[in-house]
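Z., the sequence and structure:
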Amino acid sequence: MKSPLGRIAGALVASFLVIGCRTEPVTWQVPLHDVILLNDTLSWSNLIPDTLWSQGEEGLVLEVNTTGNWIDPEALVPNLDTAWTESFTLPFIGGPIPISPGTPLWQDTENISLDLPSTGLRRARLGGGELSMSISSSVAGPLTLRYTLEGASFPPQVNQGSNEIVVQLNEETATVSLDLTGVVLDLTGEEGTDWSRLFTRWEVLVSNSASESVGVMGDDMLSLAVALTGLEVAQVEGRFDTQELSTTDATAVMDLESLQGLQVGWTELELALALENTTGLDLMGKIHSLERIDTLAEGLEILPLTGPAMAQDVFLSRALVSGSGDMGSWSIQPTTAAVGFTSDDGNLAEFMASIPDALSWNIGVEVNPLGDVSGGHDRIDLTQLPSLNVALRAPLEVSSARAVFLDTLELNPPDWVDFSGELDLAIDNGFPVGARLQMRLVELPEPWGVLPIGEDWWVFPEVIVAGAVGSPLAPSLTEVSLSFIQPHFETLRNGAKLELRVELESTGSTARFAAAQSMAIQGHLQGNAILSVQ
């Protein structure tokens, strides 16, 4: 038995034999029955990523985790950027006085104090930043500047591993910049007992490359400008005084955009906030607020979480930050504490009535509430800051379901045939609730617009789908015929797509879902194929 398209092709061949050499177009219709146009299945895997649900005795369970920082790194270690300028003159007048190659002209040291309130640092390893120097000289000859960051440790790939920076000055000015990534700064000052002080040493001499002595005048001057900029601190060691900090942060609820229209009546809700301390500091945390944020047509809507666990002091002892060598290879054993909420306390049920667009929080923290118990050897890896994990576990019992399945199909009708007739839909619904099916053509190519057949000709009538019935549930079958005319067919052929939107209905009572439940939608064409031969 020939297929419908096979019968059309046969009719086309027969027509060629009949029309012979006629030049005007000939159009005729051929009956077309049960040709599949669409075949689509919608399930929970379309709506919820597999990593966010599990199948248990209570049915489908939603499990959501999101993590963010709860301490601002700059609150612990403020910006270390600093800059200074020195100008030097010779202790004589007149001249020129010949100075032989290799002879020092100026020597000095400098202690640079870093402004770090409530903090005293012994050393800091940099994750980025730049040392830049600009040198100007009025001496009529080549000079060499040797500038040393005393006690600093340079990795082999930075300045060949040396903490002495050598600059040749063959003209009036010279500049140099050096990437400080991986450099460990000693901040104990000249005596090795200070806090947050960078000790530097410099020397300017007549360059050994000079072919003869250089004449130096008593009024010759040299100016040196040094700047440490863009410093990114990776690890630090030092003393952190008792102080109170506050951090506000927010995180979007990722991978759940399709669920954010789902209105639910959760049962046995559990919301756990896990605080993790990765610093070598004792911390006393307090959650001042946890808010859900939703974007509505009229603006943002913010709902705070309430419950007895809010604003309680949570003590986290210091993490074990160990390692005696490179600061970048420190190992960390964090400490944790948890704050829990259930649907029996506060407004958690209202707070999680749907999936929020984002969560925000404000957390207060007291640093070292027990004082300096390490003797000034607190350690912090600023690349691994204390974190707040928000974990939600909820059996998916939907009471007011606005869950929406959305799928867009790309159909490709052949370009040698048109169609006019009906689209017969057969919908097998395995969900325990009914639904509304809406179909429309999207991504319409030009010049399609308003046609005499109606202003919204690309939108098909809504179809009401019955829910599954029985125990165990048996899929319901809904059958309906929709008008499917030549503009629909031609628009799909020219690149339009068919969008299916299935909105689960509100039941007024809970309905338990399972991961395997789905809805299968098939569409068959019934009508006439329109053929045209020139």
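Residues 1-22 have pLDDT under 50 and may be disordered. DSSP finds five helices and 34 strands in the chain.

Let me know what you think.
H.
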